Amino acid sequence: MAREEIIVIGGGIGGLTAGAMLAQSGKSVTILEASREWGGCAGKFQRHKFLYASGATLGMGLEKGGIHERIFRHLGIKIDAARLDDVMKIKQADRTLTFYADREKHVQAMQHAFPSHSDNIAAFYLEVYRQAAKIRLLMKQLPILPVKTGKEAFELLTSLKPSHVTLTPGFFKTVHSLLKKHHLLDCRDFIHFLDGQLIDSMQTTTKDCAMLMGVLALDIYHEGAYYVPGGLYRFAEELVEAAKRNGAKAILGRRVTEVRRVGDHYEVEDHRGNIRTADHVICNAPVQSLPDLMHQDLYGKLSINLKKRSTQDTWGSMTLYISLDEAYLPDDFPLFQQLMNPSAHSHDEGNHLFLSISDKEDRKRAPEGFRTLTVSTHIDLSNWKTQSQYDLNKAAFIQKMLNTIRHYYPSIDQAIVDVYPGAPKAWERFPHRPGGVVGGFAQTRSHSLFLSLSHRTSLKNFWLCGDSVFPGGGTIGVSVSGYHCYHSITGRKLIQ
């Protein structure tokens, strides 16, 4: 009997996870990546002697029982990573906060920073951590949401414990409601701090973030945050090697131009006119790619909800890639930090920056005496539609972002060797994010959990993974969606 042929479109972390696991299970797998780099938004690029992390930089899920640890153990992959006790610094005008990995130490630091709300903050985090522990217990079985089949319903029900009944009210609430419950709505700087954590992971803030997803996000760094030498592209490279070891074909520079259904199989055509046939297609591209990626007749058979989502923009990102002379950097420059524009309180349009710098000893990213820095901020893509808007915004954001860094680090200009801007068209051109969309849909009540997009489509054997579908963005989220494709195709489960 011939092996099932599976084509994975997109070599991001989600697609590579699905491809590597399916190849190990004995399937015939071909992974097609449009760019010249693996990893998608967690990829890399080289300029002269410097290597830059494209997007995702902070490693998570590598602790015992974490999703990456389980998948890598399943595939025989080992990743070098250093666990962080101080996850990141957060600078808000004259205030500097530290996100500590230790829960008790973290709560004490927040109480010290906001003494007038000390008891309220302790009660807030007690509920956050309790709720997150229950959700993690449920998610350990990696149930599929939204439920589409009887088997998925059965697996969800068998994952439930009696304590999970207490989570039910949270489906209808936001993190804002939790802050209100604990009388913290007047503690604006604390909310500003929480908003900074959620905008990076949930693509939204406390006001609109679904409560159950939000408490998980506020707790996730305590489970384990890591510095990965070189960057998170190492995940992608190891997944590719694991896929190849098990017979998969992994091909860079193959942009898929059309997927069509012919009889009982799919045809996948690339930009060179090569046509490959498959029993299953796993699309790891954003759902916004589907209208151009799929034959019109095939696209028309997708669900109304999926077609609607495929026309919606999500956030974009403006990114600066900077090489630095270490001699001009302060000794306490953190590996990871968030900088808030001191004159603003929003978390978009350049007012909230996430910075990730290479470690002093990381020779994969920079030669001795130098370091590379990735700086990103959320942007509203609707303001970048015309060429004149685009050119003005690009220039303005470069200066706005640099000015915020200068505010906290006045000597930064002496350290800067080169600056490479990554505006929306760069995200469209290199990792092939349509229109520059990044990060997936905001995890609001209307876009998360049972109302998120499933990896399963209305088309037989046409699957989705990546940051557009449940459970959402980040390397943890996309890996889970890749696993869901593997599980649905093979019926096999990930080892505990």
Automatic annotation (TrEMBL):
<dbReference type="InterPro" id="IPR036188">
    <property type="entry name" value="FAD/NAD-bd_sf"/>
</dbReference>
<protein>
    <submittedName>
        <fullName>FAD-dependent oxidoreductase</fullName>
    </submittedName>
</protein>
<dbReference type="InterPro" id="IPR045892">
    <property type="entry name" value="CrtISO-like"/>
</dbReference>
<feature type="domain" description="Amine oxidase">
    <location>
        <begin position="13"/>
        <end position="482"/>
    </location>
</feature>
<dbReference type="InterPro" id="IPR002937">
    <property type="entry name" value="Amino_oxidase"/>
</dbReference>
<dbReference type="Pfam" id="PF01593">
    <property type="entry name" value="Amino_oxidase"/>
</dbReference>
